[in-house]
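pls design
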């Protein structure tokens, strides 16, 4: 079987090169959502960040808990999808059953 440079690039190199990008995306999602507070305050956008700020100012604990739950679930889902992408892209992460 002849391996062309295109096959080597897409089947081997590209799959391994994308793994760090998937990891950094999943980890940076929490920072993006956290940074939305500052962005929404500066530009007066209505969103989850400004709602969180209003909840802190008014001491609305159920609202803050709900927002923290949504943020936590978003980060967990992103990390789960990154783990699934790792299983598809990297054969070393697959667990063999006997």
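designed seq:
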């Amino acid at each position: 079987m002849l391996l062309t440079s295109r096959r080597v690039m897409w089947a081997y190199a590209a799959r391994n090169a994308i793994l760090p990008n998937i990891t950094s995306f999943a980890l940076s999602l929490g920072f993006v959502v956290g940074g939305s507070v500052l962005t929404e305050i500066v530009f007066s956008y209505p969103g989850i960040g400004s709602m969180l700020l209003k909840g802190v100012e008014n001491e609305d604990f159920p609202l803050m808990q709900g927002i923290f739950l949504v943020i936590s679930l978003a980060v967990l889902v992103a990390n789960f999808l990154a783990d699934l992408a790792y299983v598809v892209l990297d054969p070393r992460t697959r667990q063999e059953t006997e």
